[in-house]
Amino acid sequence: MSPAQPDGTRWPADGALDPGLVEADCGRPLSLYVHVPFCRVRCGYCDFNTYTVGFGPGAQIGDYAPSVLAEADLAVRVMEEVGLPARRARTVFFGGGTPTMLDATELIDILAGLRERIGIASGAEVTLEANPDTVTREDLHALADAGFTRVSFGMQSAVPEILATLDRTHTPERVPLVVQWAKEAGLSTSVDLIYGTPGESLADWEASLRAALSYESDHISAYALVVEEGTKMGAQVARGELPTPDPDDEATKYELADALLAEAGYVWYEISNFARATEADLASGQPSTSFEHASAHNLAYWRDWDWWGFGPGAHSHVGRARWWNVKNPGAYAGRLRAGASPAAAGEVLGAQERELERVMLGLRTSEGVALDGLAGVGRGDEAVSGSIVDECASGRVTALIADGLIDGVAALGGRAVLTLRGRLLADYVTRELMGY
């Protein structure tokens, strides 16, 4: 069962945007997200909008590309009508679900259609999520030849018992094989890990980290398991069949990940994401968000770029407007066949909500956020001395430094940057900086 969508206001049937909401002169880059809702098996912890069956014309494997490209036509029209300048996408991300449930030719058709309709910038990052057991060497070479540049494999764990608890269908031995195939095809590689699975020991987690490091991928993501209501795992925990994940245990595992990844030459650029640092990266003196293997698409979200999400349940973000599509694949495809927008509802953010969003998202990155942008917080020495007008805001910054949650040197330079301890308490730091 998929979770309910957020509350929102009904979106126009034609998808039209109010020109006052899109900040047409903002110059923000554009990213594209393609949601592929199909899976071979629905994992017990997953609360994404995914399905193990098809839903008829335009909403099933082998017949999905026309629906996505019909929404791309809609996107072009809406952005033109609202006066947004033509922008080639800087990043494209195929997520799911399991995008590699689609045949490689269908994925290639979707990418080619997006390139034809919207445009994809030269040198753009084009990422494909893949389960290790749903991709072949031939697929990866074909995808690379068609313009995909990066593949992110859902490894999750190297321990068979943990994979079984998560309902994953691949074996640990499959992961290094597909990573090697991707490298042979010239693709940048990433592996995703999950920590905190019920029954996972610290030794299990260390084994998974060391296995992932042995594959020498370009990028590693490490996400804490969240048991969501309405999932199979949520029901198992509620019935006492599985233990509830322990936040202290997850914090310990994150600290271990940070230490082992740093030792192996990976640098955090976003709380859950680590990029392998090249010699050129280290010589450049640039922040880790600029490193060669940091995911540009991940950063698009944290940096407040515009993005258009295609597919059932996908979310879009243009200026101050946010909207999300209907979740049922059949309803999604049906609306597009009828010439209507698949958007179910949306919202318009006010100035205070936009500021909270800016701080919350920016703080997750190694760049942090400018203290100047916060009401009453100054720069440089004044930011921590209490000599600025709003001593309450200055005091909050000082307290966060004293608690070891933000870096004192960075604060003196006018930015709030999380320490390792701060990364574990990022929501708290956000609330404190905003004065909530």
Describe this structure in words.
The chain has 436 residues and is α/β, with parallel strands linked by helices. Helix content is 38%, strand content 19%. It contains 17 helices and 15 strands. The strands form three sheets. A nine-stranded mixed β-sheet has the order 8-9-7-6-5-4-3-2-10, with helices on both faces. The longest helix is centred in the first third of the chain and has 17 residues, at 65-81. The chain starts with 8 loop residues before the first strand and ends with a helix. Residues 376-389 have low confidence and may be disordered.
Write a concise synopsis of the structure shown.
This protein is of the alpha/beta class and 436 residues long.
Topology:
Blueprint: E1 9-10, E2 30-36, H1 65-81, E3 89-96, H2 104-117, E4 120-130, H3 137-146, E5 150-156, H4 160-165, H5 174-184, E6 188-195, H6 202-214, E7 219-224, H7 232-238, H8 247-263, E8 266-270, E9 273-276, H9 279-284, H10 296-302, E10 306-310, E11 315-318, E12 321-325, H11 329-337, E13 343-348, H12 351-362, E14 369-370, H13 382-385, H14 391-402, H15 408-412, E15 415-416, H16 420-424, H17 426-434
